[in-house]
Every structure is written in C-alpha cells, then in structure tokens.
Automatic annotation (TrEMBL):
It is a multi-pass membrane protein. Residues 20-304 form the ABC transmembrane type-1 domain. Keywords: ATP-binding, Cell membrane, Membrane, Nucleotide-binding, Transmembrane, Transmembrane helix, Transport. Residues 333-569 form the ABC transporter domain. Gene3D superfamilies: ABC transporter type 1, transmembrane domain, P-loop containing nucleotide triphosphate hydrolases. The keyword Nucleotide-binding applies. GO terms for cellular component: plasma membrane. InterPro entries: AAA+_ATPase, ABC1_TM_dom, ABC1_TM_sf, ABC_transporter-like_ATP-bd, ABC_transporter-like_CS, P-loop_NTPase, Type_1_exporter. One of its GO terms (molecular function) is ABC-type transporter activity. This is ABC transporter ATP-binding protein. The chain crosses the membrane at residues 20-40, 60-79, 136-157, 163-182. It is found in: Cell membrane.
C-alpha cells in the first residue's frame, strides 16, 4: 500500500494526510444520522407494541439527526475541497518538478523514443495520479472506512447478521488482489499504445510538408491508422479483461446483502432477532454496500493509476548530471583523450581519443566531412553529454565537476536549427538574459541586424512568433538567436554552421552580426564552407571521429592533406555557374 501511495503522490504521501483525515471524519459523521434513524424506528416499534413511551427522546433523536446531516454536509464539503485542492496541487507541482528534473538530465536522455514516453508521462500519467488523488482514493477510503465502522458496529449488535452481511467480502477481496498481474500487463500495453499513437500523430502533423510533397498519404496514414487501432484494441482489452472480474467481485460483495436479508427473516421468525435490529441492519447495510462496491470497482483503477505514478517516480529517479563546482575564471578548453558514443560504452563510438587545446580568446574552427563528429565535439564542450572516456577540461577543471547550469551561463550557442518559442519576439531574445531591460533587448537586436525587420512586424517586439519560429524565415530566426547570444554576453561562443543555407544578402547580415558577437571571446565554430574560417587561430580537421590535422589555414594547405583536398574541392566548385 505504501508503494501505491508513494506512486500516486509522486513520492509525497504526506500530501494525503489531511484529505484522508477529513474524508474519514466525513464518513464517520455520515453514519450518525442513520443511528438516530434506527433509534427512531425502535421507538416507533415500541410505541405500537408497548404503548406510548418517552416521546421527548424521540424528538431529540429527530433533532440530532438533522444536526448530524448538517455536520456531514459541512465535513464532506471541507473534505471535498481539500481533496481537490491537494490533488490538483500535487499534479501541478509534480509536473513542474519533473520538468525541472528533466532539464538536469543529460541531453541524450531525450532521444526520440524517450521524448514520447516523457510527453506521455507529463500529460497522461499525471492526469491519472491527479484522478487517483481527487476521485478514486477518496471513494476507496469512504468505502473502506464505512465498511470497517459499520461492520464493527453491526458485529457488536448481532454477530450472526454481521457475518452474513460480509460473507462475500473475502471472495471479492481475493479476486481484486489476484487481478494485480493482469492489470500490470494490460496497463503496460495500454501505455505503450498511447505513446506510440501520440508519436505517430506528432510525426504525421510535423511531417505534413514532406508527406504532401512526396504524395505519401497512403503509407503514413497507414502507420497512423495502425497506431490508432492498436490503442483502440489496448483500451478494449483493458475494459474487457478487467471489467468482468470487477463485476464478479462486486456481485460476491453484494451477495452479502441478500444473505443478510434471508438470515434476518429466519432469525426474526425464530424470535432471536428483534424487528428494530433487523431494520438497523437493513438501513446501515444499504448505506455500506454501495460505497464498498464502488471502492472494490475503483481498486483496479487505483492500481493502474499507481503504475502511472511509478512511471513518474522512475523518471524522477533518473540520475541528474553531477557536479557542483563553480566555473573557473580561465576560459581555455582542453579535450583529453575524449572518446564518446551516444548510446553509452556498448554502442558505436563517434569520437575516438580526441585530445586538443582550445586557447582562451581565440577562434578555433572545426571542419571535416559530414558525420565526422564536429557537432558532437560542441555538445561535449557545452556538457550536453559527458564523455564515455577521457575528460573535457574547462579552465583546467573537469567539466564533470562543474555545475551544468553554472557552466551554461558561460557559454552562448548559435545552432544551425534555431528553435524559437511561441512567445513575443522580445521574450524570445530575453532567453539570453532573464532580467534584460527593453533597451538591452533592442540594443542586442540592433547588433544582431534584426531590429529593422522586427520593427516591420505588426506589434514590433511584442509580436508573437509561431511555434518553433514557423512564422519567420531561416535568416530571421538565425539573427534572433544571435541577438539572444549577444544579450547573454558569455565569454565562450559556440557556433554551429550558422550561415550554411542562407542567401548572400542574409549571409552578409548574419556574418556582420556574428563578428560583433564573437569579438574578444573564446570562439569555437563549425563551418562547412572553409572560406569563412580562413582567419581562425586554429583549424581542427576531423575525420571519422579523429583529429587528423590541425594548424592555421596556411599550415594546413602546406600539409596537403584532407584540409587541402577539401579546400581545393570547395574553391573549384565555387566557380560553377548555371547557364
Ligand atoms: N543524438 C544522436 N544519437 C545517436 N547518434 C548520433 C546522434 N547525433 C549524431 N549522431 C551520430 O554521430 C556521428 C557524428 O555526428 P555529428 O552530428 O557530430 O557529425 P557532424 O560532423 O557535425 O555532421 P554534419 O556536418 O553533417 O552536421 C554521426 O554518425 C551521427 O549519425
């Protein structure tokens, strides 16, 4: 039980204390009016059998019954508010806690497979723990408390009737407990089908341009259709697998009511049970069975919600990137025998034994064929991942020991695939510096050559950008991301092919923005077009994950190796014209 409570509260079972206590009180008070009613029934019975008795006590019982109804209403109200408030707060806090935690995991954790699962957990699993806390658990608690109180009371009044009433309970309980394995299997299948369906819908919508242009509706629609029908089948399997067993358990439970009625009739006829006691059992019995049957039906739902909670806890248990040192004052970077593979030591290595020193306040260019590991080197430098072996040293300190968030404060990155958030232009630039003033934002935008086109937008800096920057051109997105980096004012700048796919006018504007960004900083730049890095202090040539050459442009040309070959290739194709 502890495990279940831990799971549905995302490791904060204390959150349940108050709602559970108030629900218990509300349930306790729920029984009191019926005890008064039983007393009144007894008095009426006595009146007809033995003549008028103490009418005052009966009026007091009527009055108390009304008071208890009022008290029950009040307590239920409080319990309900607390339960909902705490349930919704727990899921909102849990989502924020998980989002924070994911930010601190290595970037490799969010592979496309994991991203779908994490999305499902953030949306659906939290909805389920929320529903467990706000609806399912309170109903189960009500049912169980009512059953315990009523059975204690009724067993004391007449144990024969009490036993008859709960005769079916052990069988119902056994069925519920026996369903755990089945629930686990079905829920795992349902969760997988849900993740796959969400992934296929996402893929279908994001890939719509490709789907339309290659007339691929047929095959892609088929993948989506299969994911949807798999999800449908998994839902049906859950209902058809668990529903009938739930009904059998409820039937066993309810059989106690019939057994108790028949036993009561026999005992009353035999003279060993009074009519008022029989009436008490009928009154309280009907109050107990419905909540208990609901509790039994809800138990399997609670089990499935607790599995959703376990998925949340598993994510929360993923180890965050270690390190708590400050960033050293020196900004020189060294790769020392760094090897790396994206899937851990057992998968194919992407970088092999890379050792290199990138001097402070210098520009280092990384060049090499596609797939040689250039972007991977930048990702390791920014500590998106830790090396599989070897070290990346920042100012002489192993980056593994530096707190990742402090490290990132010292690094600005401009990627080739810029991501902008669905927010105002100003806020998108403000990601570079949270507390930036409007003047600082505008000044960064001017330096990044994006002020003019921003001012031409309908609401200037307050214009909302479409998700992912879909309402802007590639060059405009690049310049906004450069403005971000300028605003961040970090001593290290990493550039990943910022101008690779732009027209000459855009490229000139961006080159100018970049030259303002990189002034007097430690810069590492990846460029496919070697012309843009001729002036770099050092050029590293990567091939198949190894540094095969390094030096200045002229030194590398004299070596007449891979760099010289790439240079010749690029300078000769530059003269090509389409006639
Ligand atoms: N997230 C990832 N998971 C697994 N493998 C990856 C991942 N990212 C890159 N790779 C692989 O690592 C190798 C190096 O990739 P990387 O992006 O570093 O090369 P690159 O030199 O920057 O290439 P390009 O010039 O085409 O951008 C490639 O074989 C690539 O397929």
């Amino acid at each position: 039980m502890n495990k279940i409570l831990n799971a549905i509260t995302c490791k904060e079972p204390k959150r349940l204390v108050k709602p559970v206590l108030w629900n218990a009180l509300a349930n306790l008070s729920n029984l009191l009016p019926f005890l008064c009613l039983a007393y009144i029934v007894d008095q009426i019975y006595e009146y007809f059998i033995h003549g008028p008795g103490n009418s005052k006590s009966m009026w007091i019982a009527w009055g108390l019954m009304l008071v208890f109804f009022g008290l029950t209403w009040l307590l239920e109200n409080i319990a309900c508010k607390l339960t909902y408030r705490d349930g919704f707060m727990a899921s909102a806090d849990g989502r924020i806690k998980l989002a924070e935690h994911i930010r601190k995991l290595p970037l490799g954790f969010l592979t496309s497979r994991n991203a779908g699962e994490v999305g499902n957990t953030m949306m659906n699993d939290f909805s389920r723990t929320e529903s467990a806390m706000t609806h399912i658990l309170p109903q189960i608690i009500s049912g169980v408390i009512m059953a315990i109180l009523a059975s204690a009371l009724l067993l004391v009044v007449d144990f024969r009737m009490g036993l008859a009433m709960f005769a079916g309970f052990p069988a119902a309980l056994l069925i519920m407990l026996g369903m755990r394995g089945l629930e686990q299997r079905l829920d795992t299948r349902l969760s997988k089908a849900r993740v796959s369906q969400a992934g296929k819908i996402q893929e279908y919508l994001s890939g719509m341009r490709v789907i339309k242009s290659y007339n691929m509706q047929g095959s892609n629609f088929e993948r989506l259709r299969k994911a949807c029908t798999d999800y449908r089948d998994a839902c049906i399997k859950v209902e058809s697998g668990i529903g009938p067993l739930n009904l059998v358990a409820a039937a066993f439970l309810r059989s106690g009511l019939s057994l108790m009625t028949v036993t009561g009739v026999f005992l009353v006829a035999g003279g060993t049970l009074t009519v008022p006691t029989f009436a008490l059992f009928l009154l309280v019995g009907t109050r107990v069975f419905d909540p208990l049957a609901v509790a039994i039906m809800n138990y399997s739902e609670l089990m499935m919600c607790s599995m959703a909670g376990e998925r949340i806890c598993t994510l929360l248990n993923e180890p965050e990137m270690a390190g708590n040192s400050d960033v050293p004052g020196k900004h020189e970077i060294c790769f020392e025998h760094v090897s790396f593979s994206y899937g851990g030591a057992e998968t194919q290595e992407v970088l092999h034994d890379v050792s290199v020193r990138l001097g402070s306040r210098t520009m280092t260019a990384i060049v090499g064929p596609s797939g040689s590991g250039k972007s991977t080197m930048l990702r390791l430098l920014a500590r998106f991942y830790d090396p599989t072996s070897g070290k990346v040293l920042f100012g002489g300190v192993d980056e593994r020991n530096i707190e990742p968030e402090k490290l990132m404060k010292h690094i600005s990155m401009v990627f080739q695939d810029v991501y902008l958030f669905q927010d105002s232009v100003a806020n998108n630039i403000r990601y570079g510096k949270e507390d930036a003033t409007q003047e600082e934002i505008e000044s960064a935008a001017r330096l990044a050559n994006c002020y003019d086109f921003i001012m031409r937008m309908p609401d200037g800096f307050e214009t909302i950008i479409g998700e992912g920057g879909s309402t802007l051109s590639g060059g405009e997105k690049q310049r906004i991301s450069i403005a971000r980096a300028i605003l961040k004012d970090a001593p290290i700048v990493l550039l990943d092919e910022a101008t690779a796919s732009l027209d000459p006018e855009n490229e000139a504007e961006i080159q100018q923005a970049i030259s303002r960004l990189v002034q007097d900083r430690t810069v590492v730049v990846i460029a496919h077009r070697l012309k843009t890095v001729v002036g770099a202090n050092a050029i590293l040539v990567l091939d198949h994950g190894r540094i095969v050459e390094q030096g200045t442009h002229n030194q590398l040309l004299t070596q007449n190796g891979l760099y010289a070959k790439l240079w010749k290739l690029q300078t000769s194709t530059e003269g090509w014209k389409i006639n």
